[in-house]
Amino acid sequence: MNTILRTSTLAPGIHDLHVQSPRIARKCRPGQFLMLRLYEGGERIPLTIADSDPVEGWLRLIVQTVGRTTRELVLLKPGEKILDLAGPLGHPTEIAFRGTVVCVAGGIGAAPILPIARALKAVGNRVIVILGARNAAQMILQKELELCSDRLLLCSDDGSAGLPGQVTAVLEPMLRSDSRPDQVLAIGPVAMMAAVSEMTRALAIPTIVSLNATMVDGTGMCGGCRVSIGSTTRFVCVDGPEFDGHLVDFHELQNRQHAYSRQEQQAMEQPHRCRLERTESALLRDEHRRTPA
Ligand SMILES: Cc1cc2nc3c(=O)[nH]c(=O)nc-3n(C[C@H](O)[C@H](O)[C@H](O)COP(=O)(O)OP(=O)(O)OC[C@H]3O[C@@H](n4cnc5c(N)ncnc54)[C@H](O)[C@@H]3O)c2cc1C
Ligand code: FES
Questions:
Q1: Looking at the whole model, is its pTM more than 0.70?
Q2: Ligand minimally distant from the alpha carbon of residue 254
């Protein structure tokens, strides 16, 4: 269980991992995620289930290395194991026929968009995907998204892939055209989801966003992932991760994402100490305490 089957690199700092996990693979649906813990005492982090095979029993995780746990995760080799995978968590995306759905993916947001776009297409929607990245080298899943959409539009901040500019520049004319979408789904950086929601609010186009709040336990107990949705407080792990973009307090979410910056920095700076080493020093300390002076 939880054995790494294969790994590859999709772009600098973005890795593709297939992990054996038959129980989760049997149950998961588009939009869901899991909580991962690499080893005893390690931090728990949420990752989207980007794909799965219920028959072969594997999950696909697409991981951007940003801090300590993601860096340690992508160093694992085929045959090595992840201690804990808890999931599937979160509500699956509501997959229904809406007409034309525009899926807006920013950066690593392409990973959660992929299974959702596939499922929306499978029930007959006209699916348009807008895929944005900083540059051509950072653009991921282009071929797979092309296969499951009616139209794929690329854009990059520096113009090295697709149209120059951000996803909102590509979305804007689409919203104002005669064939304006019946629904928009945006997944990516908070600022991007906020900008997309602001654009669609004025035109009353239903917009779903998937919130990447910082999570601690993933069970609704710690309150770490709380967000304000309209006048209510919600927990992304158990009430989300998807919410109505027109109701999200993005400003608060952005502020809360930096709540643990100091601890994250410290975790990156500390050299890894293996648990055995710690146990050994704890034993020595206990022995020292027991020894009469
Ligand atoms: C529901 C959900 C699904 C996610 N799916 C994916 C996925 O499929 N692939 C993927 O690469 N990442 C995903 N993330 C983000 C991922 O959980 C974080 O990148 C990870 O927790 C960082 O852990 P770390 O120890 O490597 O970095 P840390 O040291 O904890 O953080 C380093 C930096 O990363 C940023 N960061 C930390 N947590 C988050 C977060 N939750 N969202 C965005 N930025 C964060 C912060 O700016 C922080 O300074 C998801 C997050 C959520 C909530
Ligand atoms: S992560 Fe603890 S309440 Fe959601």
A1: yes
A2: 1
